[in-house]
Amino acid sequence: MIPLRTERLNLRAFDEGDLRFVFRVHQHPDLARFIPSAVTPDEATARRHLERFMTLAEHPVQGFTVAELRDAVDGRAAGTPVGLIMVKPIPPSGGGEAVDLEIGWRQAPEHCGHGYITEAAGAVLDAVLGAGVDEVVAVAHPDNFPSHAVAERIGMDRVGLTRAYYDTETLLFRRRRAGEGPFPPRG
Ligand SMILES: CC(C)(COP(=O)(O)OP(=O)(O)OC[C@H]1O[C@@H](n2cnc3c(N)ncnc32)[C@H](O)[C@@H]1OP(=O)(O)O)[C@@H](O)C(=O)NCCC(=O)NCCS
């Protein structure tokens, strides 16, 4: 992952101290409907997530990122973790090698509605594309409107419905590195 700072957030790798946050972030009520595989009823499940989130920390672009507050705000202490961003290969439907790179996000319910995930995901996406990756995709349940809004706010294009990933129908978003469109850049 790429460590970053934004206006309001520090973006850092996961560590052993993040178990409680990992549990909390998976209490978002939308998970049961939109990502049932991520529902986290107990500490053992949270620990399995955390072990996965601690992988890829040394990878130049892929990885799992904690977004935490840089400063105290509205009774929340500096350093409070609010959400997570993931950048990883996306599993193609039907199996086979995962080649496309996916960005995704999850946020603790008590920290939603402040633009934190948009700020974090936008910084991560810019950094990944800036590091030379040609294209990043995001997929969401067709009715997951808060997630669609995040994708569009960080400049991803709404491509349309697809069954290309996760053996299910999702709404696909994509952003390409500047100059990586279907036609050569003008000028
Ligand atoms: C998807 C998810 C992360 C979106 O959370 P969110 O709080 O809507 O996203 P943001 O943190 O970017 O906040 C955006 C909201 O904050 C508001 N906001 C307030 N202050 C803001 C600021 N300074 N800057 C930007 N937005 C701000 C925006 O207007 C927007 O509110 P709106 O939806 O009422 O228009 C959250 O719903 C979630 O965790 N869902 C469960 C997991 C999930 O579905 N993940 C995606 C799988 S595909």
Features:
alpha+beta; Aminopeptidase; 5 helices; about 25% helix; binds coenzyme A; N-acetyltransferase; acyltransferase activity, transferring groups other than amino-acyl groups; Acyl_CoA_acyltransferase; GNAT_dom; Protein N-acetyltransferase, RimJ/RimL family
Helix-strand category: alpha+beta
Q: Uncertain regions: pLDDT < 50 for 5+ in a row? A: none
The named CATH superfamily: Gcn5-related N-acetyltransferase (GNAT)
Morphology: globular
**CATH class (first level) name:** Alpha Beta
Mean pLDDT level: 94
Number of strands: 8
Taking all Cα atoms into account, the compactness measure Rg is 16 Å
Written as H for each helix and E for each strand, in order along the chain, the element string is EEHHHEEEHEHEE
Helix content: 25-40%
Record the strand order, biggest sheet.
1-2-3-4-5
Bound compounds: coenzyme A
Taken together, the total number of domains comes to: 1
Beta-strand content bin: 25-35%
Q: How far apart are the first and last residues' alpha carbons, in Å?
A: 34 Å
Largest sheet: 5 strands, antiparallel
CATH topology group: Aminopeptidase
Could you say what the CATH architecture is? 3-Layer(aba) Sandwich
The helix tally amounts to 5
Domain N-acetyltransferase: 9-177
Keywords: Transferase
InterPro entries: Acyl_CoA_acyltransferase, GNAT_dom, N-acetyltransferase
Organism: Tessaracoccus oleiagri
